[in-house]
Amino acid sequence: MQVKQAVIGSHGLDTQFSGINFLESLVSEFSPSTSTAMGLPREFHEQCRTSLELDYLKAFYCWAQDAALSVANRIIGSNSAVPEVRVCSAALRLMLQILNWDFRYNTNVEGAKKSIDVFSTGVRQDSNSPKRSDYALVQPGSSWHDVLISSGHIEWLLGLYGALRQKFSCEGYWLDCPIAVSSRKLIVQFCSLTGTVFTSDNGHTQGQHLLQILSGIIQWIEPLDAISKAIGLGKSESEMLDGCRALLSIATVTTPLVFDQLLKSIRPFGTLSLLSALMSEVLKDLMANNAEEETWSWVARDILLDTWTTLLLPRDSAGQNTLLPPEGINAAASLFALIVESEMKAASASASSDENEDYLQASIVGMDERLSSYALIAQAAIDVTIPLLTRLFAERFARLHQGRGKSDPTETLEELYSLLLITGHVLADEGLGETPLRSPTYATTAIGSRYDYRVRHTLNLADSGITATKDSPAGAGGVRGVLDAFLLACYAESVDLKGLVIPGQRNPPLGRDKNLPRMPERLDQRRIGYARAMRSFQRQVDGILKRLSTMGIGYAGVPQPIQNHMMESRETEHPVVVLSSSVIKFAEQSLDPEMRASFFSPRLMEAVTWFLARWSCTYLMPSEESGDKARSSENDYEPQLQPHNPKGKSQGFFGEDNQGKAVLDIIVRISTTTLVSYPGEKDLQELACHQLFHGLVRRRNVCAHLVALVPAAFLPLGRQGSSPVTMKHITLITAAAQAVAALPPSCCRTVASPDSWRCLANTFANDRILFSLNATHQRSLAQSLVLSASGMTTPEASNQYVRDLMGHMTAYLVELSGKNDLKDIAQQPDVILLVTCLLERLRGGASASEPRTQKAIYEMGFTAMNPVLIFLEVYKHEISTEPSFVPGTGLDKISGSADVAESSGQQVIGFCSAKIKSAVVYLLLKFVVDWVDAQIIYLEAQETIVVINFCMRLLQLYSSHNIGRMSLSLSSSLLSEANTEKYKDLRALLQLLSNLCAKDLVVYLGLHIVSPLITLDMLKYPKLCHDYFYLLSHMLEVYPEMIVQLNHEALAHVLGNLDFGLHHQDAEVVDMCLRALKALASYHYKEISASKVGLGLHATAYKDPDGNLQDGILSRFLRSLLQFLLFDDYSTDLVSAAADALLPLILCEQDLYQKLGNELIERQGNPAFRSRLVNALQLLTSSNNVSSKLDRPNYQKFRKNLQSFLIEVRGFLRTI
């Protein structure tokens, strides 16, 4: 009561301010995530939290409201600073803190937590959103309705801020004053209010609540241009940014339709239009002020992009994109146009300015997040944005040819780079780990009637381009490029009358949509003389074809619609096809050496390769299965990109029966060019090897065409058959005729495609040119080439293909390993490099093993067995990190002599040399690991014996030479490097043993060989730790009886590591250790129940050399597991695994369990806690009729008992 009186101002302003601060500290202290460690039980903290939330939090908020109300009028009426401002600011902060509370115990929310979570750390877990801006939903429950909604509190808050804002409008500093900041933060927080705090009236109350707030904050961001200009002149940007955050918060609690409708009740436009205009202004500021450091517009752009992402991301389980209302589509279209303009301007500026290095240095991955948000906006207005991208791309392509040899193309190339990235994100999803489908947006969007004629612009482009290039050094090639770009631009603009029913035509141009609008009255005149226009069009087409024939032009750059009387088929007219074709034709220009040298820098080729990899996974030769999946939700789209043929197959424009083979050939040739013509460009070659090739070979139907590519020319915009045409094409054909007439007869030639994939395979197998690739890229390339064998017609052909591909490499390894002077030549750098490349290729081939190619890959590994052992023997002494490996340095005797510095330098040189050679040993081990992993499940008995014997020899050889041993004389940095090398080797050996376990083979001998090399320090490496405990868990689960065969030292090592893993921070490692404990304890219990020995002496107590009594295995782990369960932090997911381990341990060590329980009870000084603990321990082993059987039903009963036991006792046993 005294605190309340202080807060509401009964004892003066100073006391009021102190009382509010006291409540703020109290709320912070009662939240477990910010509470002070007091040594009290966790249950106490949770009870305090529950009590505060249910009994006091609402009251505190009301007190803060009253405090702010009591001083508000004084603040508004005063013309100078008054002490009441401090009180009001503190009250607003308290209200904000209370609304930010993690409400858990609201009984009106379905599924709300009503019991204490004794396992969590108490830290609030908000949504794991990938967005750049943080936000949290506010869900206090229906009991808060009167305080927050019906009381008029929000109207008062908006009025207070509005009055103060108007009063201090001339004072620029006021926006950043505490009272202004606190008010805005509280208003923004109210935007996130949701849940049962609103009445159940179909969202009407919440809509009115959001409209009220939106009406208040709109003045923070309007007028947009004036506010942007004022910020540029020094005004604070905080209010503008808070307005953006408010829009984001509103978007999180509404659908796009509701979001857009909010503003329409008070404005002639919707909220989406406001959002678009706001972001447009931000983008304009970014373009005008291209600063090196992040400005307000950078922050605002990120917030607004998050708002668009929130609205447009699929919200249903089917992953369907959110549809916008028509006005929202227009807003998205105009915004995307400005986005592209800003990106193009930034790209262009980066080419000529040394100051703007951020754009040049930004990688594709680094820009991915922002571009993904851009893509969502584009996909919301796909009928406008795709043609826009097509036009921009064609214009830049033509500009590139116009200025060839005359101007610097860097700006245009940077713009093309930016366009490629944007286009790739718009057309296709990332699709990692799956075969991505086209966005449903492309399927359901009908091409609208919006269209802007640009024929005159296109004609001017063609005329100037041909004039500029036909007499240039580029010659016919340059003219051909201009013509290609011109025709693509024409076709990109040929979407007139799309979406309209044309008289005399049975079906709509876009397929089967019966809801397409009829031709409007203003187009009635176009119906007059339609047949006459069609006949005229046919005559012009025939004339152009005849002229092309006389000129000997068979160049694929001429669109198929012109060559085959087909200007507007359902497939070719689709904007996605047009845009894709234009990009592919541009990429194909990189195959011309002159064009490649002039324009295609490594940076641009990275974008080209990235686009092709992303695009091909979605559109190139879509399989029948993926087409069937898409068909259910893409009925309108099927006639355009995936029409049904009589055989029932779903083939699109880039399908197997259309242009797919030609495009595939182009992609392979471009990829080969990146490997051969760009030496040393690791990023570019990684994209080709790891993304593009891998994406192609993961589908069987594509592999079938890869291994059987035949000469073909890519005809980008057509297919065989008749096609309806439109009036627009008369103009386009006339323009095309003028462009063709300007070409010299020798400017175009037919392009023949080589057998590109087989050519790549032959180069890989027989030519050393690809040895210049990074070793990992060679492994990836080998994997892709071997995987493509699945496209062969028969298993025999697939195996022969692999033998031809990999045979030369194994043969060379055999030849090299048989040389008499191998020890000498093996130390030469070029030989080390060669062996490394060969091993990486063999690894790639081994990891690509499939049933069809298993035989050939087994033969490959079998042939390499002896060379592997020989090379391991050769490099063994060179890998040791003992100082003696540096001849003549006397590192083992270094003390304080004057030669220390020189010797240390030699030590470093020697260590680096050893490190290089150690990579060979690691690759030898990894090759064996990958090969065994791929082959072990296929092997027959005799083959299995051969592989096991080989692996044991390998392990013994590695152990006998103690490869990777450490020297204490090494410096700490070198010692760390040596540890890393050793970790990699040991992890490879553990993986090898795990692979052998897959064949149900007893490999304790291998573990006995490797275990001494694995120390607790080595287990700090996460991957090595995981592999070690995976192997240990598997072996103890399958062969628990073998543990008794280990000697005392080996057993102590295994048990020590097991105890280490039980307390590991990785839950998966802990789970594996619990499974191992369950296996050991249950094995021993079942054995002794059958009057057998079980674990024997290992399970009984013993005296150590010092005479101290030590627990047996099971006693030791019973103590450790109980300590873990009662006092440590862990995930609730581990409780079931822990119960499965604890039950057999209790059954084996019942006396010890009783003793530990009594000790725990005696330590409880609180009688209530002691009584609860006694009852909980009794119920643990008696409730639910738990018996002494180790069967599935009994395990399930004990899991329930342990869960209840922990909930009951952990709250007061653990202290915080």
TrEMBL record:
One of its GO terms (molecular function) is nuclear export signal receptor activity. InterPro entries: ARM-like, ARM-type_fold, XPO4/7-like. GO terms for cellular component: cytoplasm; nuclear pore. It is found in: Cytoplasm; Nucleus. Residues 626-654 are annotated as: Disordered. Gene3D superfamilies: Leucine-rich Repeat Variant (1.25.10.10). The keyword Transport applies. GO terms for biological process: protein export from nucleus. The keyword Nucleus applies. Coiled coil: none annotated. Keywords: Cytoplasm, Nucleus, Protein transport, Transport. PANTHER family: EXPORTIN 4,7-RELATED, EXPORTIN-4. Belongs to the exportin family. This is Exportin-4. It comes from Escallonia rubra.
